[in-house]
Write a structure and sequence with these properties.
- It contains nine helices and six strands, in the order H-H-H-H-E-H-E-H-E-H-H-H-E-E-E.
- With 280 residues, the protein is an alpha/beta fold.
- The strands form two sheets. It has a three-stranded parallel sheet, with helices on one face.
- Helix 3 packs parallel to helix 5.
């Protein structure tokens, strides 16, 4: 019998992930969040330097700026400006750069005014899963249209760092809370069946750790990397998800040492951000 051709790297990584997840499920059939002692030790060790913008998490601090841009733009671009109102604003079906500046500015002012009006009544609630030391959680809690942010993580030391840093800003006191728990332990998740596909949500590129040395060694694991195409395929193929959710936008981003974080035209290169909307 001829030897089988070598599996592609992507296929091998997929098989290794499935085997890893199978071991977790065999260990505890009620838990769907995958973690390990070494991972917890690693992140606990980073707790004391989490908010040092020049420390091991400096690249995460820089990425948060781009991440917030993506979140803000996604929310703004998907607001229904003329829904449930008789006072409609004009939304040009063409590029407004073709218009004279005065007319363009007037239309933009009307659109921004309507967005502000909608967001003032929005009161969004945010769940930050795997919040770490709270870099994203704090940024979201400072948005005027966010009512409440809950950050959850499995690292007790890192959560302690998040709670201590939160105390430095009185604005966050009533808007931001942290809990040591997995996503399936949330009260509102008790009645749901979680897919194993959600257990690993690491969208970091191995290059940043092993080559560029931009993050602490041990932070990223290649076999747990989930490509954005895998998530899209899962939403399409998983029973019931296709009708309930849609991918609104996906953007790739890379870190350039001489520039910083930058969006790319290809979501398959480097890190990526993805917005998924519940449609029913």
């Amino acid at each position: 019998m001829k030897p089988q051709p070598c599996l592609s790297i992507a296929r091998q990584l997929t098989l290794r992930r499935l085997l890893h997840h199978s071991r977790v499920l065999l260990h505890d059939t009620k838990k769907f969040t995958s973690t390990s002692e070494s991972e917890m030790s690693h992140f606990n060790a980073l707790a004391s330097s989490w908010w040092d913008v020049n420390g091991p998490q400096r690249i995460l601090h820089k990425m948060n700026l781009l991440r917030m841009d993506f979140i803000h733009d996604t929310i703004m671009d998907n607001l229904k400006l003329n829904e449930n109102t008789d006072d409609e604003v004009y939304i040009p079906p063409f590029n407004m750069d073709l218009l004279p500046k005065q007319i363009k500015d007037t239309i933009n002012a009307d659109l921004e005014g309507r967005r502000d009006e909608i967001l003032s009544e929005a009161n969004y609630k945010v769940l930050d899963v795997g919040c770490g030391g709270g870099i994203l959680s704090e940024s979201m809690a400072r948005l005027s249209f966010v009512e409440q942010v809950k950050g959850i993580d499995l690292s007790s030391d890192v959560l302690e760092a998040a709670k201590l840093h939160k105390q430095k800003d009185p604005i966050l006191e009533d808007k931001l809370s942290y809990s040591l728990m997995a996503i399936e332990d949330l009260p509102e998740m008790k009645s749901l069946t979680l897919s194993p596909c959600l257990r690993c949500w690491n969208t970091s590129t191995i290059h940043r750790e092993s080559c560029a040395r931009n993050s602490a060694c041990g932070t990223h694991t290649l076999e747990k990397y989930i490509n954005q195409t895998e998530i899209k395929e899962w939403l399409e193929e998983e029973s019931g998800l296709r009708e309930s959710f849609k991918v609104v936008d996906t953007k790739g981003c890379i870190y350039l040492p001489a520039y910083g974080w930058k969006f790319t035209s290809c979501a398959d290169v480097g890190n990526y951000f993805m917005a998924i909307q519940r449609v029913k």
